[in-house]
Design brief:
alpha/beta; L-aspartate oxidase; FAD/NAD(P)-binding domain; five-stranded antiparallel beta sheet; L-aspartate oxidase activity; five-stranded parallel beta sheet
Length: 487
């Protein structure tokens, strides 16, 4: 079936990059219009890369390693941060309008966990700017067949467990089977499974569910990052207040007093904010001392204004919200999953880059790197030995599907928010696993069950995974990651 097209599912930055980089015909399937519903479009920060004269890819790798609580794959970290400057140059050639300093060099922003400014950005709407440029390149590609308003229903496997096609559903309810031996999942994350999230509420881990059902291995699903500064207003999802605000000097205040070093890794700051909220204090982000804050952060200013707040004069109420999944479908350096013929890229994948806590602005970088790797691999000869370095899947996680909806999305959101929030404990997790287990025939409870099961299986706190019943909990304050950042 090598003559069949490559099928790419998802039109965020990872999926678009894969389609753009592919040298063979491919079909790009997206549930809405191109880029709609993609978390990439919402990213405010930018792309982290060692571009300054006083920076190095080794320093970027070291910051990524430490921010991830020393739990990442060091070889993966070195490989992806090593090509980061090349990725920024590639995006520049695609006419991404990165901000420039007065001398014409890239204006590099400082974000939490980085020891120095290294984030190339396009205002405070970098994700939208980068994704739109990649989408334009895809639309001008003669080898890409874009199929909008088509949802992935099932990944089809043959008797040997290899991919043989996909089943998609159009908005009119009709379905189509696309026969192919090469499928690339770029379906995004699973943040919509939590009650407080900065993700699109459609991000329900569909890619994880469909791939896991045919035997794809997952890892680190319990490692989900809570962004410490979501705007605490009655909206769903919650608006995000970019990390770059704190990099520019914004302070976190609890009942008017500063309580944390704001440029520590996100898991540390989120836990500190959660502690203050749990004590009944009101937490606010103070950006009033940032010069020209509304012109420097126009997207954030517009968000605040839409909520009746003024970025330049008001203290902004904040709370942690689910932001990113470090875990997902386990992949190798070629973005191959454990299922022959199935690749996973972007947030749906678990590469090992992020460890137990993602360093700010490494996600758009990972999307481009993994998308390009999958395209290069899928366009080459299909290997005889497939992803032989990946561990085998746990058979207990491979469960069949049925169409009986027995637990609502809102019920799942409430359950995960309670059991898998910023702080977790074994007894609550055990009850969540038991509650979800009878409902795994439906995709949303199935993914939630996989997450809760993973959290229960890891009794020790690390990075974003905070167990209140871990008697051996170590100090997770990694202040050394940002020494010099505020100098």
């Amino acid at each position: 079936m090598k003559e069949s097209p490559i099928v790419i599912v998802g039109s965020g930055l990872a999926g678009l990059t894969c389609a753009w980089a592919a040298t063979e015909p491919c079909v790009l399937v997206t549930a809405e219009s191109l880029t709609s519903g993609a978390a990439s479009m919402w990213a405010q920060g930018g792309v982290a890369a060692a571009l300054a004269p006083n920076d190095s890819t080794q320093d970027h790798a070291d910051d990524t390693w430490r921010a991830g609580a020393l739990a990442g794959d060091r070889a993966v970290i070195d490989r992806i941060t090593g090509v980061a400057p090349e990725i920024v140059r590639l995006l520049t050639e695609l006419d991404v309008p990165f901000d420039r300093a007065a001398d014409g060099s890239l204006d590099l922003a400082l974000e939490g966990g980085h020891r120095r400014p290294r984030v190339a950005h396009a205002g405070d709407h970098s994700g939208a700017a980068i994704t739109a440029c990649m989408a334009s390149a895809v639309l001008h590609s003669p080898t890409v067949d874009v199929r909008e308003n088509q949802s992935l229903v099932e990944i089809l496997a043959d008797d040997h467990g290899a991919v043989r096609g996909v089943l998609v559903r159009r908005t009119d309810g009709t379905t189509e089977t696309i026969e192919t031996s090469r499928v690339v999942l770029a379906t995004g994350g699973l943040g919509g499974l939590w009650g407080h999230t900065t993700n699109p509420t459609t991000a329900l881990g569909q890619g994880v569910a469909l791939a896991a059902r045919i035997g794809a291995r997952t890892d680190d699903l319990h490692l989900v990052q809570f962004h410490p500064t979501a705007l605490d207003v009655p909206r769903d999802p919650l608006p995000l207040l970019t990390e770059a605000l704190r990099g520019a000097g914004a302070k976190l205040l609890a009942d008017g007093s500063r309580f944390v070093e704001e440029l520590q890794p996100r898991d540390v700051v989120a836990a500190a904010v959660w502690e203050q909220l749990g004590a009944g204090r009101k937490v606010r982000l103070d950006a009033r001392e940032i010069p020209d804050v509304t012109s420097r952060f126009p997207a954030v200013a517009a968000i605040a204004e839409g909520c009746g707040l003024d970025l330049a004069t008001d203290l902004l109420p904040v709370r942690p919200a689910l932001h990113y999944s470090m875990g997902g479908l386990t992949v190798d350096q070629h973005s191959r999953t454990s299922v022959p013929g199935l690749w996973a890229i972007g947030e749906v994948s678990r590469t090992g880059l992020h460890g137990a806590n993602r360093l700010a602005s490494n996600s758009l970088l990972e999307a481009v790197v993994t998308g390009r790797a999958a395209a290069q691999d899928a366009c080459g000869p299909l290997p005889g030995a497939w992803a032989e370095n990946l561990p085998q899947v746990d058979p207990a996680t491979v469960l069949p599907r049925n169409d009986i909806a027995t637990l609502s999305v809102q019920d799942v959101r409430a359950l995960l928010s309670s059991a898998c929030g910023v702080l977790r404990d074994g007894a609550t997790l055990e009850r969540a696993v038991e509650r979800l287990a009878p409902h795994t025939g439906e995709d949303v409870p199935y993914v939630a069950w996989l997450i809760a099961r993973s959290a229960l299986a890891h009794p020790h706190s690390i990075g974003a995974h905070r167990r209140t019943d871990d008697v051996h909990a170590r100090n997770t304050d990694r202040t050394e990651t940002h020494q010099g950042a505020t100098a």
